[in-house]
């Protein structure tokens, strides 16, 4: 794997894909507003390269395909930029080391200068445009969500006690490949659902375990899907599992019903938090007034993250441009409070937004021990009862939604998520 001519996986920058549509490495492009032209920079393949790759399009063919009227050799990009240094040059914040190196070479900027000189007007213009999904984009996202649903359905049918987590993770990836897709992000597949981003797949799945699968596909056009389901390794949820699962499902339904244009997603998040708190009161883990508990942040012992995020060409759409620009506005700043500081999206929803809704309950023993030692929110948390649940794990349920003119619409085919539907599915798989 470690040699120069290896074929390393390439993933084109999503903003470059959005504006130029070229999914090839070693390309650069400039939109020259003053001269009203676009220039594509790249190199035609040499005969030595063609021997190994087979025929590939010329640079001129690529430019024509994207409607770009001008193209030049890749090394001419520096000359072009050097000739325009008397004008404003806008670039996006780099997130790959090679991009930082190129900006240093082109402009002579130091690393701190690159961060300082990133163009906020360009970032804001791109976020404004890319946030609103066109009909063509919705079609692509629907396809990706459909592949993602097929991945999850295969996992729910395939799990059985005695499997390794990695065996089930391989089933998920295979299903993406079968549909000419690939993973939109590293799959989270674990019986330890309380670990929010758990990429370890080495545990043996036992009867009585629940398996959490958070996985999504990118389709050929690189649009993403992102779904989460949790299901028993056997054919039934236990009583405690049913209680927590029902609470999370009701919170997701409440959030979905609350979404419509003009509603801040932060309010949708808090709606889900209140429903989670009500459910936790019903099983005896929380107490007191629900609104007061959520206002104080007591629920974040069980729900430490945000309710959802924007989704599109990236599963966390455009976050390389800055989460504060994508999910927030100049009049709405990110909270620094535990729980709320992990809310990626808070701004008012608009028609055309695509986002995830993924409430959860996560029983994290080390966090419980810390809060109990500090007597944190003891007026709202019943620590004595909670002690009996410390080995429970976690539950998350996630679907993808489009904000419509009046409400929201779940994207993709229906994927079973009620307790009865999942138990019926599991019973059929095990017979």
Give a description of the structure.
It is built from 16 helices and 13 strands. The protein is an alpha+beta fold and 431 residues long. It folds into two domains: 14-131, 3-Layer(aba) Sandwich (Creatine Amidinohydrolase, Chain A, domain 1), CATH 3.40.350; 135-430, Creatine Amidinohydrolase (Alpha-Beta Complex), CATH 3.90.230.10. Strands 1-2-3 form a three-stranded mixed sheet, covered by helices on one side. A three-stranded antiparallel sheet has the order 5-6-8. It has a three-stranded antiparallel sheet with strand order 9-12-13, with helices on one face. β1 and β2 (37-42) form a beta hairpin. The longest helix has 24 residues, at 135-158. It is globular. The two termini are 43 Å apart. The mean pLDDT is 95.
Comma- or semicolon-separated keywords:
16 helices; three-stranded antiparallel β-sheet; 2 domains; Creatine Amidinohydrolase, Chain A, domain 1; Creatine Amidinohydrolase; three-stranded mixed β-sheet; 431 residues; alpha+beta
Q: Which helices and strands, and how do they pair?
A:
Elements: H1 14-20, E1 28-32, E2 37-42, H2 47-53, H3 59-65, E3 70-73, H4 76-82, H5 97-107, H6 111-117, H7 120-131, H8 135-158, H9 165-178, E4 182-183, E5 188-190, E6 210-215, E7 217-218, E8 227-232, H10 239-258, H11 265-282, H12 290-296, H13 323-326, E9 354-357, E10 360-362, H14 365-373, H15 383-386, E11 394-396, E12 399-403, E13 408-410, H16 419-430
Parallel strand pairs: 2-3
Antiparallel strand pairs: 1-2, 4-7, 5-6, 6-8, 9-12, 10-11, 12-13
Helix pairs in contact: 8-9, 10-11, 11-12
